[in-house]
Specification:
The structure is a single chain. By secondary structure, this protein is mostly helical. It has one domain (22-402). It contains 17 helices and no strands. The longest helix is centred in the last third of the chain and has 44 residues, at 359-402. The termini are far apart. This is Sporulation integral membrane protein YlbJ. Residues 42-136, 220-315 form the Nucleoside transporter/FeoB GTPase Gate domain. The chain crosses the membrane at residues 47-70, 120-142, 219-242, 292-315, 321-343, 379-397. It comes from Oceanobacillus jeddahense.
């Protein structure tokens, strides 16, 4: 019976999407182009270097090296091997869904158990500093000082989530590691890296080609999800579904001293972070804290668009999705609490301190992130075209080698 209900549910969603596209073809096309531009100009060129670098570091054993070095930190703090430090660092630097990508690769190479990989995924899918400072703070709010508050609360809450999730799956683990001392050993770390490199017998050209191809394939999948959810959010709004959901939560917003006008932007943010953050920034409120609280929550929640990307990446492994989803709720909650606690010291007090500074200082702070964002928009399409052409060339070259005439 359960499987039949699933079948009906999946079929109903597909039929709804089909008829919605027929009903609103122009608006759907506009939303698809908007999602494509976002992926084409910013997402692809910003994530591609990180994905390729991650593949190369895995192939050459550098992750093994980091794993041995950071074992004394990662095991007591998060109850995962030191190799997880690589996913933690890369996740913070490049943004989602890099953490899920690295966790799945570590699981495929059996550097992590299933439970350890689920713990790692739960706290390594962060928003990138470029998105927090460039897109949200400078682009939407025109207030770069807000970025520090959002970043500290976002990354701090994620660290707390990692500590909480260290207890996940302890009963299911076959080997519970206790009372074991982990010492710092540079020599042992190098030996592990060397052994890992020797086990990889592929030539450098093949390793590089596989890294590029795997990264581009993942990014193409991510682009598909971005376009799909861009269209879906637009259709849900046109069909009055999103406004209906907003009316359900609006009565509860005054409990948290939030205006009802934030209901629709908040619901939109639960589907897609960028759209929701932009809408939240446009609502007039008594205090910026009210907006910062909702922004912090949807950044921690990741949005259903990001969660769908993560689910697609994890589907190739035995890593379960529900611990990641639970962690997203915890992340959003912790981020809101930190935002309330740190709003005065990290935002209000900084405004008072900087009020006597020359305006040029603020302009310089803003330009660091916005120039990076604008640079990606300028060179992004060229990088995307060259990368896709490279992927096609690699596929053709591999086919010729594997199937010579």
């Amino acid at each position: 019976m359960k499987q039949k209900l699933k079948t009906l549910g999946y079929a109903g969603i597909s039929i709804f999407l089909f008829f919605s596209l027929i009903r609103f073809p122009d608006q759907a096309l506009e939303a698809a182009i908007r999602g494509l531009n976002m992926w084409w100009e910013v997402v692809f060129p910003s994530l591609l270097p990180f994905f390729i670098t991650a593949e190369l570091l895995l192939a050459f054993g550098v992750v093994k090296f980091l794993g041995v070095l950071f074992e004394p930190i990662m095991r007591p703090l998060f109850n995962i091997p030191g190799a997880g430090s690589f996913g933690w660092i890369m996740g913070m630097a490049s943004g989602y869904p890099t953490g899920a990508k690295i966790a799945s690769r570590l699981r495929e190479e059996r550097q992590l158990s299933q439970i350890e990989a689920e713990r790692l995924v739960s706290f390594t899918n962060n928003s990138s500093p470029l998105f927090i400072f460039g897109a949200i703070s400078a682009g939407f709010f025109y207030n770069i000082k807000l970025g520090l508050l959002l970043a500290v609360c976002h990354y701090g809450a994620n660290t707390i989530v990692g500590i909480v999730m260290r207890f996940h799956g302890r009963k299911q683990e076959q080997q519970v590691i206790k009372k074991k001392k982990y010492s710092f050993s540079l020599k042992k770390a190098f030996q592990e890296m060397h052994r890992n490199r020797l086990r990889n017998t592929r030539p450098f050209g093949e390793i590089l080609g596989d890294a590029v191809l795997n990264s581009i394939q993942t990014l193409v999948m991510i682009g598909g999800f971005i376009i799909l959810f861009s269209v879906l959010i637009k259709l849900l709004f046109l069909m009055d579904i999103t406004p209906f959901l907003a009316t359900l939560i609006e009565p509860f917003l005054p409990i948290f001293e939030l205006p009802k006008e934030l209901g629709l932007p908040f619901i939109s943010g639960l589907f897609e972070i960028t759209v929701g953050s932009n809408l939240i920034s446009q609502v007039a409120t008594d205090s910026l804290l009210q907006k910062a609280m909702l922004i912090s929550f949807i950044l921690g929640f990741n949005g259903l668009s990001i969660q769908a990307q993560v689910a697609s990446i994890l589907a190739k492994t035995d890593i379960r999705f529900y611990p990641y989803f639970l962690a997203r709720l915890l992340h959003g909650t912790f981020a809101v609490i930190l935002t309330i606690l740190l709003y005065k010291p990290l935002y209000l007090d900084r405004i008072v301190i900087r009020s006597n500074e020359i305006p040029a200082a603020t302009v310089q702070d803003t330009s660091i992130w916005m120039n990076t964002y604008y640079l990606l928009q300028d060179i992004g399409p060229a990088v995307t075209i060259i990368s896709l052409a490279t992927a096609v060339f690699i596929i053709i070259y591999k086919n010729k080698i594997n199937n010579p005439l």
